[in-house]
Design goal:
Shape: rod-shaped
Oligomer: single chain
Radius of gyration: 50 Å
Order of helices and strands: EEHEEHEHHHHEEEEHEEHEEHH
Structural class: alpha+beta
Strand order of the largest sheet: 9-8-7-6-10
Amino acid sequence: MAKEEGPNKIEITAPEKVNVKPDALDDEISYRLKNILESTGWFIDPKVHVREGVVFLSGQAQKDEYKEWAEKLAGNTQDTVAVVNQIDVLKPSIWDFQPVIKGLREQWRGFLKIIPAILFGLVILLAAWLFAKTTYRLSRFILSKKIENPLLVKIITWSIGTGIFLMGLYSVFHLMGLTTIALTVLGGTGLLGIILGIAFKDITENLLASIFLSINNPFNKGDLIEIEGITGYVQSLTIRTTILISLEGNYIQIPNATVYKSNIRNFTSNPNRREDFIVGIGYDCVISEAQDIALKVLQNHPAVLKDPEPWVLVDSFGKSTINLKIYFWLDGKKHSWLKVRSSVIRLVKKAFQSNRIDMPDEARELIFPQGITVWMGSEKPEGAMQLEKPEEADKIATKSEGELNSEAENIKEQGSKSKVPEPGRNLLNQKKKD
C-alpha cells in the first residue's frame, strides 16, 4: 500500500501477508510477485526469481521507498523463506523538473481549494468596512451633539470604526485558518503603537496636549493671552501648535506641550485690566496733596473704571524723589491699555505741573556756551534769557494716542493678511462663552 502525503514524502506499507495458495511452488511465487511489481508502475523491468523459497528481486526503482516496499512485499508472501533485494535505485537527473512541476501543481490545487474562503473573506471584509464606516458616521453625529470638542469626537469615533474593522479582519484570518497570524498582527499593532509613541515622543506629547487643551478650553479664538512671556491674540489650535497673532501683527507658533505646561494669562477672560506706573515728586512736596491731585485725574478720566477704584500709593524713597505708584483699572474690550496708560501719565504730569508739584530728576550738569544772565526784580534786562515751561495738553487723548480704542481688530486684520503658518482644522470653540 502507498500513501502520498506531500510532493516529496511517500509513506509505503507492504501487505502483512500475500497468499498465493497452500504449498505454493517457486514459479507461482515468482509469477505472483512480478505481476504485483509491474502493476504498481514504480519499477523498470522488474524481475523475480525464486529458488527453494528464496526470492531474488532485480530491476530498477525510482525511489528507495519503492525498493524497501518490494522487499517487504516479497518477505510477506506465502512460503517465502528469504528475500535477496538486488533492485537498483535510479538517481534523478539534475535536469529533472518533475518534482518542481509536481510541487507547483500541488500549490495550485491548494490555491484552488482556498478560493471560496478568499471570496467569502473579501465579502466579510467589505461588510466590516461598510459597518465600520456607518458606525463612524453615526457615532460622530451622536457625539457631536453631546461633546463640543471636535478633536475628542474625532478620536472616539475613529477608535470605534477602527476597532470594528480590525474585528472583521480577525474574522477573515480565522476563517482562512490563520488565527496565529491574526493574533500576531493584532498584537503587533499594539506593540507598533508603543514603539511609535517612544520614537515620536514630542509629536505624541503635542497631540495629547491638544486634546487636553481643546477639552479644558483655557482660551478661545480671539482671546488675548500671554504664554511664556509671549502676548498675542489666539488664532487657532491645531493638533501640533497654538497659533497667536502678536501685538506686532505677526504669527507665532507655540508647541501645545509648552502651552499645556505653562502658566497662561488670559486677559480676555476678565476684560477689566489693571495698569500701573511710578511717578516721583520732590521731597519738599506734600505727599497727600500730590496723591489727591493724581487721584482726581484718575477719577475724571473716562477710560478709567470707578469700580474697582484707582489707587495712588507711596511706593519708595528715591535718590531725589518720593516715588508714588498709581494703579487704575480699564475695560480691555473697549480701550487699549497702552493708549490709556499714555493718556493717564500725560494728564498726571500736566496736573502736577499746574499745581506746582515738583518732579525732580537726578542731578545733571547744564552747559550754556554763551553764558546766562541772571537778574533780580520785575524788569527783564536786555539780552537776558527767560526759561519757560511748556504747558501739557489737557485733552483726554491726543492725536498720537488716537481714540484710546482697543487695537485688537486692527492687529487681527493685519495678521489675516499674512500666510497662516500651519493651516488645518481649528480645534477651538469659534464662539466665546459669556
